Amino acid sequence: MTTRSPIVAILWENWRLSRVEAAQRLAQGIVAASAALTFFHADAAVAFWILIATHSFFWFSIAKLNGGQFFDGYKPGFPFYLLYSRPVPTVTIVGAAMLYDAVSCTALYLVSSAFLRFAFGPPLPLFSVTVFLVAYHFAYTGVQWSTRNRVVQWIGTMATFLPFFALLKNRVASPLQVEFSLLENALMVLVGVVSFGFAVAGVARQRRGEARTAPPWTVEWRGFSDWLAGLFRFPCPTSSPARAQVWFDLKSSGLPVLAIGLAIAIVPPLLFAIGIPIAFVRPHALLSAMVSVPAVLILGGNAFGIRRKQGRTYASAFEATQAYGTARLAGLKVLVRTACLVAALIVVGVSVWASSSLVSAWGDWVVNGKAAAPGLLRRRRAIELAVGTMTAYEWLALAFVATIVVAVIVASRAAFTALRARYPRRVNIAVWLLLLHGFVVVLCGLAFQRGIASPFAFYSAQDLTNRVIAVVGAASVLATAYLFWSVLAERLLALRQACGAILVSAVFAAAWVTVVDSTGVPLSRMPATDAVRLLMWPTLLPLMVSVLAPWSLSRVRHT
Amino acid sequence: MEQIVDVNDLSRSFGSKRALDGVSFRATAGQVYGLVGANGAGKTTLLKHLLGLLRATTGSVRVFGLDPVRDPVGVLSRIGYLSEERELPEWMRVDELLDYTRAFHPTWDGSYARELLESFALDPSKKVKELSKGMRAQAGLIAAVAHRPALLILDEPSSGLDAVVRRDILDAIVRTVADDGRTVIFSSHLLDEVERMSDHVTLMHHGRVTLSGALDDVRRGYQRSRVRFVEHLDQPPVLATALAMEGGGRTWSVVHSGSLEQFHHSVLALGGEVIESRDATLEEIFLARAGRTRQPAEVA
Amino acid sequence: MDISINVTDGVPIYRQIVNQVKYLVASGLLLPGEELPPIRTLALQLKVTPNTIVKAYGELESSGVLHKRRGSGTFVSEGRQQLALRERRRIIEQRIDALLAEAHQLNFTADDILRMVRERKAAMDPGTTAEPAPVEKVEK
């Protein structure tokens, strides 16, 4: 390879690391925005926010170089620390990397919005947002890269995110139009330049080795951070392997989830309380209440503790070499994580409910010319009423259904992570196929809408989706049967455990029917196909997941 | 003698790279088995198959007569394992590590564990992430040997460790074999260690077993001789059965295997004589088989 | 027990142990009836596999140098003066072989060596008036 300028080399390196992610983001943004515009008949503002959301993050594939994990926003610090020993000035290194980040993300946004504008017509803003995006990226990466201090990273990210997006929100006009005044543009440019300066100074410090660093060789994902695991101290039981394993899973994954859930649960009451005197906070309080439950559900991933190190994913050899059966291991890990997740959900739910009662203290609150508080209180009372009229049996069924649903989510995410670790290429192909299918469906919908009806009249998007769902259903049934056979043949699951799984699924189906009934859906009077579809997935999913989880863990444990 | 490990014609590829190629390996009780080979020769891959971390795609692996993939509990409960990367959970304390491991092994000897903790001077309340590399190896070693496993598997146990910790590990190997005739399989780069500690040695190269047998038998098959020629030679002389040559000018050091007669004849034919001859050390055999010959040294 | 082993020698470890034990017995540093360290202890001391010690002790036992008393340990055999003589001869012969090989390398004949041995012996004995014979290094 011929020697070339270090700037070109750095830009090439950035490109090489982020190109797959760039393709993914481009596809994601366009597909999601198109779906919103066609299926949900959203207005252009929604598409705009989708695109902005997709393209405001820095490149995860570059941030990964530093270690850390997605939830934590990866470890702060300059990811290209390997360049420190090269004879290139810090300004060049940092400048090239920041420029690539800002320009590439902005370019992707421009391409996506131009495409959507051409395909669907809505006037998505193009160049008026350019300065905003570039400046925001400079500020964001500046904060991330200039320090190795986690606290500064979090505070700094908030400090850049809030003002920038508050400004953007204010400048989005109702028929979609974004206009920044000249002064605001100049201010954003200034912020960008200042961030660049901070970044250079910070990276220079790290380069000289003066930053308080974690040794960069720990470029691996260790699951939840160690201090979370150390929060709850209780001795390890030595009487039986099952108890010891439960202790291990509680400390390494279950209790951290609970702790994070508790932390999330504190936010809504706090914000609602602050909202009593300060009206500005109220919409954020509502947002926090709506977001907190899904936020906790995000924590249910990777129950098997798959690690990522230097690009390779593998199960921890420490756990894989303990004398414990694979199916039992999978079951325990899923159970512990589910239990802690359910506990966290209950805590968060109670906290949200309690804080929503504070709405009455908000008094006269006017949003868009109408009093908002009475509407919220009315909705709250309706929920109260609905819940109050449920019988004890229906309560039980609902609790059971909710728990099993959470367990299925945890188990399926764990299995997916395990499969992706073991068969990365096949899983990637499957995911891309799904995305492609989504894209094709959206295109069909678009064509249908635009009236290019004749060749596509036969396959309306709805029809196509229905057929695909039927195919997926049949494939799932076959896959479940295959997995059952495979798991029993390998002696992974004893016959007794397999029967147990079937029993639990049957009970779940019964409980599901009860819950659906209590919401007033007329099951007995529904056409057969609809009833089957309503019942099939709840029965099939727990069954499939209960064999998929041990099967996938076995594939990862015994590579 | 009980057949502890029986690996038969095992092959394994990772993508295009062939890590193991028709490897057969047997271990009987009460012996120490040393695995030697260059980096990437397949030692770790073979050991991982014994533990069930890798599934045998062709060939068979049996440990204690069981398949480690189908019956992980039956196999792993009688194995102590110290891995090269010393993968211990960072958040665990040393005492928690020992308690956790203890729960899985009913044969755990608490007094032995305590004795080892004291002799290593490990602080039980320290977290793994606060331990140095050597201390991690020590903690992992206690967890591996305290339940008196029937089979102790050590993957590069001395890599990157100082002499003190290395001595502890060697002691553990000795104790395991000396007490109740249990078995040890270890892989190492340090050939003098393998030479001292092994009863059987297996040499691997590019995924194949090139040499396997009792250490003394293996060494007897190779000789190292000093040869002196009448004339000064610029290039290493071509001698029958010679594998590697060192030296320069008139005096050469040759590692050769096979018939001594042939060797002596070819030396005489080139106008030289054998000054002395002895069994080759493992290091000499290893280097000779790796196919490297030293360039002739500058003549004084 | 004062034994050291050396891996770079090329001599099998068990053989080194056998030789050294025989030397210790022959030179009187190990007395008849004295107990030898148990296999485990010696293996830990020397950092070798116990099976090597087992082999060494086994060979020493079969050649009569040691004998195992059931349950008590391994002991040096009594009354083995004759064996000591044979062993002593063997040890010296090994040294002589090495000396001759070295001499040959340095271009000395066997006669030169004999002469030099006598000289060195005379120099070591105090009060003798043996004249050192002139030794010319005859370069051949």
Task: Report on this structure.
Chain A contains 19 helices and seven strands. Chain A has 559 residues and is mostly helical. In chain A, strands 3-4-5 form a three-stranded antiparallel sheet. The longest helix of chain A has 34 residues, at 241-274. The radius of gyration of chain A is 26 Å and the shape is globular. The two termini of chain A are 37 Å apart. In chain A, 36% of the residues are buried. Chain B has 300 residues and is of the alpha/beta class. Chain B has helices at residues 43-51, 72-76, 94-104, 110-120, 133-145, 163-178, 191-197, 215-220, 260-269, 282-289, and strands spanning 3-14, 17-28, 32-37, 58-63, 79-82, 151-155, 183-188, 200-205, 208-214, 222-233, 242-257, 272-279. In chain B, strands 5-6-7-3-8-9 form a six-stranded mixed sheet, with helices on both faces. In chain B, strands 2-1-4 form a three-stranded antiparallel sheet, with helices on one face. Chain C has two domains: 13-79, Arc Repressor Mutant, subunit A (Orthogonal Bundle); 82-124. Chain C has five helices and three strands. Chain C has helices spanning 13-26, 39-46, 50-62, 81-105, 110-124; strands at residues 35-36, 66-69, 73-76. In chain C, strands 1-3-2 form a three-stranded antiparallel sheet. In chain C, helix 2 crosses helix 3. The termini of chain C are far apart. The mean pLDDT of chain C is 81. The interface between A and B is medium-sized, with 33 and 31 residues.
What is the CA-based Rg of chain B, rounded?
22 Å
Structural class of chain B: alpha/beta
CATH topology of the largest domain in chain B: Rossmann fold
**Tally of separate domains of chain C:** 2
CATH superfamily of the largest domain in chain B: P-loop containing nucleotide triphosphate hydrolases
| Rg calc of chain C | 20 Å
Oligomer status = heterotrimer
Would you identify the CATH architecture of the largest domain in chain B? Answer: 3-Layer(aba) Sandwich
| Spatial gap, N to C terminus of chain C | 47 Å
The CATH class designation of the largest domain in chain C is Mainly Alpha
**Main beta sheet of chain B: strand number and arrangement?**
6 strands, mixed
CATH architecture grouping of the largest domain in chain C = Orthogonal Bundle
Poorly predicted regions of chain B are 292-300
Strand content of chain C: 5-15%
How much helix is in the residues of chain C? 40-55%
Strand proportion of chain B, as a percent range, falls in: 25-35%
